[in-house]
Amino acid sequence: MSKKFLGMAVLLAAVLVLAGCPDDPGNQDVYTKTMGDDPGIGLMSAQTAGSIFDYTEEAGGITINRLKNAVVLKGYLGSSTARAATGNTLFFIDTIGGKPVKKILANAFNPREGAQSLVDAGVTKVKLPATITAIADGAFANTGLEELIIPDVVQTQLGAAILSSIPVTVKKSITLRVLDYADIANETAYKEKIWNTFIEKNPYITIVPEYLFLESFHNKVAQYAADGKLDEVDVLYSWPSGSHAELLYPSSETPLLKNLTTMTDWSTFKTGYTEKSLDPAAQAGGNNFVGIIPAGTTATHVLYVNKTLLQQHGLTPATTYDDLKTQVATLNGAGKKTVLMSSDPWVSQSCLFSMIAGRFCGENWEQNPNFASTEFKDALTFVKTLYADGVIVKDGYTPDGDGSDYGNAKSRFMQGEAAYLIDGDWAGGSFKDDIDIMVFPEILGTIFNKSTSGVLSTGFGISADIADPEKIAAAWDLVKWLSGTEVQILRLEKGEMATPSRKGIDINSLNLSPVQKKLTTFDTKYEKTTAVIDGVFPATVSSATNTGLSVIRSNPSANVDDIAADIQAAL
């Protein structure tokens, strides 16, 4: 009895496998396993004919047989385009319903028929997962396959006929421990999809992820830095500079991250990325040292505009600060706020003040910083002005106006409480069609206007403590996957980033919101990008800046001379 797969567009060549069926063949569960992004590959509703299940691909009429905990070779799924994209390689999936596939058998009536059909369909290589514990003699014999790639843990399970008839590449089984930055409550399933797709392509590699978020993540990295080694981590999520500079690129010691420019295929690899994203000067290591592959570039300052709300009150987006200030009375009179911004100190510093400091202190001001200068103090004074004029509200978060949940301000803006929101470009995926984007209006007395603050995005690097060449190669394969086209598209569509580092991604073909698509051309809204304080200075400086901005927010009479002196002392 068979079921048909409807509208199948197979991304990876696959053989369907049955794992751990319930004992009662008349009451089988429905298991599904997705390969890549194709939802059509999976075990359809089960039938009652015992332990063998037949399924048919509508396009080709190819039958796949399944046995309990085993796969019976009798067919091949996939178009010639899919095969070409994977180098004519067949990947065996290792689980169905979370249960391992244990055996590979030949066709029950003709041992050669199943494997030969793979060759006839254009398959030249077969990759097996580590869950396979037995392969029947004859399953791949005399088929003309060019290569059978297996993890070393299953090498001893191969029959003599296989070893004698097919070139076998034994891949060392490798476990990669990954420290990832993720909110485990909301992102685990999304992350697991990324890991699983990589493992399907590299079945000899096991991924052991650890998810940490916010301070718990940074504290863990700081502890590694204090220890002077990343011996418990193989692949690490990291920022390219800023607070991670002193942790991962220590200037007087051996870096904790491996220099990726030393990888043998670096010259070819880098051609697939924008020049800016792999510029060593933009990473803390400098001097031809690239520690991570950034996912893209990040504008940490974006002014989101509720055009509909402004129009309802006869207003248009402000072009100067004076325009913005005059809108306060009108909006307040209607029970609305002018500008919302999270009171979390890092938001004030990264999404607002870094842009303001750049406008007052000038382009490349961070190269010769003087936090006690008149220009820097003027920038701090302007922040005081924003609160004094009521342009940015500081109420409604917590009783003292500080320490809010980061998402609070964004949520209130989405509910129509204010005309503007200050945030980074990463927030764009949350908004509707009527939201526009711009940079902060012109400020009187600055060196220039029409600017934002920006930095390279985060990415993944490799621990410098890895010595095993095969493990280094596996970790590099993982980093390339995590920074590759498929994952960058996933991250773009999820709203984690706005501008990819990978070349050749067709933004218009992606499932992006109108605001996200606007953000991909946000660079037309400004003329200059200046430094982000926590992106270029040590953590001591960004921490002192955060503290000073919190004081300004809570205390109208805050002394900017004292705040500037504290920041200078932290340098």
Quickly list its features.
571 residues; six-stranded mixed beta sheet; elongated; five-stranded parallel beta sheet; alpha/beta
Helix content: 25-40%
Distinct helical segment count: 18
Report the sheet-strand fraction: 15-25%
Strand order of the largest sheet: 1-3-4-5-9-11
Overall pLDDT metric: 77
Main sheet characteristics: 6 strands, mixed
What does this structure look like?
The chain has about 575 residues and is of the alpha/beta class. The N terminus is likely disordered. It is elongated, with a radius of gyration of 28 Å. About 30% of the residues lie in helices and about 20% in strands. Helix 10 crosses helix 11, helix 10 packs across helix 17 and helix 17 runs antiparallel to helix 18. It starts with a strand and ends with a helix. Strands 1-3-4-5-9-11 form a six-stranded mixed sheet, with no helix packed on it. A five-stranded parallel sheet has the order 2-6-10-12-13, with no helix packed on it. Strands 15-14-16-24-17 form a five-stranded mixed sheet. It has 18 helices and 26 strands.
